[in-house]
Amino acid sequence: MSVIFLLIAASTLVAVLFLAAFLWAVRAGQYEDDRSPAVRMLGDDRPNGPTNPMNNTQVKR
Amino acid sequence: MAQEVREQVRCFHCGDPCGGEHVRAEGHDFCCPGCHAVYDLLQESGLCDYYALSDRPGTKVERDGQAIRAELFDLPEVRERLVEHSADGITRVTFHIPVIHCSSCIWLLEHLHRIDAAVLRSRVRFTSKELTVTFREERLSLRALVELLRRLGYGPSLAGRPAGATGGIPRVLYLRLGIAAFAFGNIMLFSFPEYLGADASDQQLKRGFQFLSLLFSLPVVFFSSTDYFRAAWAGLRTRQVNIDQPIALGIIALFARSVWDVVTGAGPGYFDSLAGLLFFLLVGRWYQAYTYGALSFDRGLNDFLPLVVLRRSGDAEVPVGVADLRPGDRITVRDQEIVPVDAVLLEGEAHIDNSFITGEPLPVRRTVGEVVKAGGRQRGAAIVLQVLRPFAESHLKRLWEEHASGEGRPGMPRLIDAVARRFTVAVVLLAVGAGLYWWGRDAAQVWPVVTAVLIVACPCALALSMPFTYGHTIRLLGRRGLFLRDAQVVERLAAVDTTVFDKTGTLTEREAHTVRFVGTLPDATALARIRSLARNSMHPLSTVLYHHLRGHAGYAEQVHEEAGAGIRGTVDGHAVRIGSAAFTGGPEAERTNGAAHVHVAMDGMHLGHFEVVKRARTGMATVVGATGCLTDTHLLTGDLAVDPEVAAVFAPHQLHTGCSPADKARFVQGLQAKGRRVLMVGDGLNDAGALRQSDVGITVSETSAALTPASDAILDVRAFGDLPAALRLARSARRIVYGSLLLSLAYNITGVSVAISGHLTPLVAAILMPLSSVSVVGFVTLCVWIRARQLGLHAKHDGGQTIP
């Protein structure tokens, strides 16, 4: 049964790691702007060029 | 017919209807050359994804010079304010860009490097509308960067927060909440063996879990709950009872009892209830900060004045700070700039638009030698002024300080304070009473019973009901376009029984006018020629005409504007004159109700005049009528006569004409002396006194840049029609709070009766506490939502962009 102490220690350690990650995220300012990161990933970095397919759908509208 | 079709066409860039300057290019429609230019720029750089990310995302490029001059960004003091870091030719700078409003804005501003390779990295912080750009300064100066942004329609503002300051929810609140959540989750797991009945053979395990729980609860008590202790202590020192005191008492009781139980081996303690309590309380705090934090009401006067003005020394113009201006200095104020200090006009013709101060958009003319007061905006050619008094002594600054700066409002007692007072006294009495009762019977029970009472009476649900009810109300109203300062405004709005409207700029529109031609209406070609000439004048009446008339004619040539008289020029070979009766050689017409007249003459023949009348706001009659069903209504105006359209919706005794700003404030005060709770609906600084005096002051605002001093709420004009529904929702919110208070009191009474009888086991506490919090929050959320739905306030307004 003493193995449970090892398990508890391990799980608590994992929990503390997650807490540390959360504290880091707060300190890094991730909670101050929850809108731009969501949009940032939508625009992909295609090479420069005057034509792009997404724009054509706009023309038809 | 063709006219109407064209009205439907909307600009591909900014979404405005395409009017006179309609440009068609590359299969898209643009409302003006400015929007087309931005499109071209984006097209060249391959950035047309901008248009794919959201519908018509662009903002109109400001052409009227309202933006700050780009030269200012060369000044060391401005640079210092914006630049965060500069080394080895690489500079990082943060701009505040108020027009950032959608996904496309973020995307475009973060791809600046494709437009100019000197930009290394740009990052938008959407919530605070800030853009941080890292760029090579040897290849792109700060000023050129600003000009690039401005070309895109994203001109940075110098007003507002200085670089580095962050608004919104404080980080420490997230940390407190996160730690409480962490402890809550873990301690709950540690408590399961206890609740599920681990047998005696696991005694060692149980002890281990108890001490682990104790360990995990330490940061909760000593870090997450510090705010409550501080507030409770502050209340004690000023001998005031507040809601934080029973909470602090509850936390102390929970912790002390739990530590005692664990150390003496009497039981597992209430650590899970303790962590859960803090978790729920802090969620309430976070929600409160989340709903209020989005709004910035703390715009000062300085945000509306130019940071720097041009002082003349000899032939040169040197930029200086407004605060450094001394009497006798000569300053240049260009078109669309604000006169920052009281000054005497030395050169040029001043057409001062005082709408900032009085709400009246038609400019006043000032001639050389006359005094121009601070706060007016020049419309027309540049003028030279001599400073009369320093900024600190200006009329504007005094007006602001007298009416607009103060915070505290002659108050209504807050509901939460009244409830907290009775609640706290009741809890203390109960604890003492229960202690005395058990003292006589079984002294060993005194400690457990007294702590149990304090634990179970901890007003968690009570503390949550108000932030959530009022928070939801504020959020729903904010989505519609009515922005309330805080929860107290909802409470005060619910108590309002008299509504006072200001007329100019509140019930009438600031910019929209009804234009009527008196005389024989000229044919379409002639009107187009008038329009073409009107385009050349900065005078607001010309602007009104220009926007009102339709059709295209040739460009006006040999244009000459005579101050205070009119403008003349040649269009398609015809001499056109627009202006006063004398200027056009026509008879002076009789004026009614503050209508402005613009006479026109073609080839020396007087054709007649346009009568320009300010238009009442759409839905004005409905709003006043519906508000009249809920409260008494009054109309205040500085004008001597009220337009018939507005007068029709008020009874004669409700109209009060010829009121100065001070009269307005006195009128509100008079109503309050009769015991009335007054809602003042105004539009700016000229109502500031009345807005401040009233119990709730709402400023109706057409632009995000409006000056909104002394107001508790800002009403976006598009939401003007929602005013009566908002009043109803505020009243319902108050009733919902009463309901939720009863509900949470019921929980407390149940809990206390269990506690007094000595049966409050940790398991009961662990169930009762979260159950009460969650059910109260659920109850108020549902009620507010249902009520808002009934009132038609649940959906977002069309037109997307909201003010702050």
Distance between the termini of chain A: 69 Å
Fraction of residues in β-strands of chain B: 15-25%
Number of strands of chain B: 28
Largest interface, counted by CB within 8 Å of the partner chain's CB: A-B, 35 and 39 residues
Domain module count of chain B: 6
Integer-rounded radius of gyration of chain A = 23 Å
Spatial gap, N to C terminus of chain B: 39 Å
Question: Could you characterize what this model shows?
Answer:
The complex is a heterodimer of chains A (61) and B (804). Chain A is an all-alpha fold. Chain A is 62% helix and 0% strand. Chain A is built from three helices and no strands. The radius of gyration of chain A is 23 Å and the shape is elongated. The N and C termini of chain A lie far apart (69 Å). Chain B is of the alpha+beta class and 804 residues long. Chain B has six domains: 2-42, no CATH class; 45-164, 2-Layer Sandwich (Alpha-Beta Plaits), CATH 3.30.70.100; 171-293 and 415-468 and 732-790, no CATH class; 306-339 and 342-388, Calcium-transporting ATPase, cytoplasmic transduction domain A (Distorted Sandwich); 475-508 and 617-731, Rossmann fold; 510-616, Calcium-transporting ATPase, cytoplasmic domain N. In chain B, 45% of the residues lie in helices and 19% in strands. Chain B contains 28 helices and 28 strands. In chain B, the strands form six sheets. In chain B, strands 16-28-27-26-17-24-25 form a seven-stranded mixed sheet, sandwiched between helices. In chain B, a hairpin with a 2-residue loop joins strand 20 and strand 21. The longest helix of chain B is centred in the last third of the chain and has 34 residues, at 723-756. The model of chain B is unreliable at 1-7, 160-166 and 799-804 (pLDDT under 50). Chains A and B meet through helix 1, helix 2 and helix 3 of A and helix 3, helix 5, strand 5, helix 8 and helix 9 of B.
